[in-house]
Design a protein that fits this description.
The protein has 451 residues and is of the alpha+beta class. It has 23 helices and nine strands. The strands form three sheets. It has a four-stranded mixed beta sheet. The longest helix is centred in the first third of the chain and has 22 residues.
């Protein structure tokens, strides 16, 4: 009888503990995100603990000081979100993708860790003003990201090493797609990757453009893995969701990324940095000092870890402010235009049918500005998009594409562009040709082009 009573109390105690665990949630850290709402980290889980610690590493916190869309806030005042929030969103999106894909294929703990860490850190090496600084300095953000992960001086490396001594090398190998590309790599870098999924929704929300929304939940639901190639695919029922997604990419390119104000400002940033670099090479740049991270980066020299951590939009904007008073009139004028929105004017050449004709018209504008006393290398620039919202299928024997593939119920794979007319139609409609010119030479350039 005593034993029965004891067992009854024991059962009640176990049940009470179980109920208490249900009522009392696991300890967690919560970040409220405007796109994904609640981003939760379960602290008792080693992977979540690692991800949360990486968020607070100095090199990752630096991303708070780099705008995701560079100069887009000059056209869309709300576009002041950072690469920090985007990187957090990529990690959360990748987590959702892996959760769904685990219903189709087995994903072990090691692969999940490497994939999610890579998603979080994929933009770690980005310099100021998005890709513009990279083009001037010649410093690849992909290579710099890998260096930061491998460099024992970085806090990111130390956190990865403490979790698993070979994790830094595993993450770098994954980013390099070694030993071979799999569906896990597609989660990070493909036409159906967490990067695109997040930045379209985030950029749409923060710009207020209302053109880039799409049904992420249904798109995620339609993802699958082609076991033969071990690559990411979508099921037939996801075609409408993919069309919606591709259309949102087109809209964001047309209305935000390729907006004439955005392109004008980005071109002026590039010209200002090129001018500053030229002066630095000639030892004529008055600011910053030789030991400043901006000066080192302008010359494309290797940055120490402490220098890299200081390199952000804030440090470059500080230079722009000081350069407005530079003895070099070209640099001063460009920086005043960037700080006070005195942007170059746009002359549309989109009616021109080919690049050769557009180049001829640009040469006329250059000659006219030279005759008027301007400096064509800094008073105008030509603008034609080099990328498109969709990488369409290429015939066998040509350069390989990374097109979205649709998996049928019988396992057959079909390129999305052969099913839907949308990719080709949208890409062809997105082409533009423009000349951006300093306001004082706008009429001179326009007259030369007309005549």
């Amino acid at each position: 009888m005593v034993i029965e009573i004891f067992m009854a109390y024991l059962f009640i105690g176990v049940a009470a503990c179980a109920l208490l665990n249900i009522i009392t949630p696991m300890p967690q850290k919560i970040i409220r995100d405007p796109v994904h709402d609640v981003v939760a980290f379960q602290i008792e889980k080693p992977l979540d603990t690692l991800l949360f610690r990486l968020l607070n590493a100095q090199q990752f916190q630096r991303l708070r000081r780099i705008l995701q869309l560079g100069m887009a806030h000059l056209a869309y005042p709300g576009a002041t979100h950072s690469r920090y929030s985007h990187s957090l969103g990529v990690m959360e999106t990748a987590r959702k993708m892996l959760m769904h894909l685990s219903r189709h294929v087995s994903i072990n703990e090691e692969d999940e860790t490497v994939c999610l860490v890579s998603a979080l850190l994929h933009d770690l090496g980005h310099g100021p003003f998005s890709h513009v600084f990279e083009r001037v300095s010649g410093i690849s953000h992909e290579r710099l990201t890998q260096r930061l992960i491998q460099d024992p001086e970085s806090e990111v490396h130390r956190l990865l090493w403490q979790h698993d001594r070979v994790l830094p090398e595993k993450v770098v190998a994954f980013l390099r797609e070694e030993p071979k590309r799999t569906f896990l790599n597609d989660v990070i870098a493909s036409q159906l990757d967490a990067d695109r999924f997040d930045y379209l929704l985030r950029d749409n929300l923060m710009t207020g453009s209302n053109y880039g929304a799409y049904d992420l939940q249904w798109l995620l639901h339609s993802l699958t893995v082609d076991e033969a190639s071990n690559r990411l695919a979508v099921t037939w029922k996801g075609i409408s969701a993919i069309e919606d997604y591709v259309h949102s990419r087109y809209n964001m390119y047309r209305n935000v990324y390729f907006h004439k104000v955005v392109r004008s400002a980005e071109g002026m940033v590039k010209l200002a940095l090129q001018r500053a670099r030229r002066l630095a090479v000639q030892d004529r740049l008055e600011w910053p000092p030789r030991d400043n991270s901006v000066y080192t980066a302008l010359l494309g020299q290797r940055l120490a870890m402490s220098e890299f951590t200081e390199l952000d939009d804030v440090s470059v904007n500080h230079c722009f402010k000081l350069w407005t008073r530079s003895d070099d009139k070209v640099l001063a004028r460009l920086c005043r235009g960037l700080l006070y929105r005195g942007l170059y004017k746009t002359i549309e050449l989109s009616h021109v049918t080919n690049s050769e004709e557009a180049a001829a018209l640009f040469n006329k504008a250059e000659a006219a500005i030279t005759a008027a006393g301007g400096e064509p290398a800094y008073d105008l620039f030509y603008d034609e998009p080099a990328d498109t919202p969709y990488d369409a299928y290429r015939p066998e024997g040509t350069e390989a594409s990374e097109e979205i593939v649709v998996k049928h119920s019988d396992g057959k794979l079909t390129p999305f562009s052969t099913i839907s007319p949308l990719p080709e139609a949208l890409n062809s409609r997105l082409m533009f040709r423009r000349i951006h010119v300093a306001a004082e030479y706008r009429d001179v350039a326009a007259a030369a082009i007309r005549g």
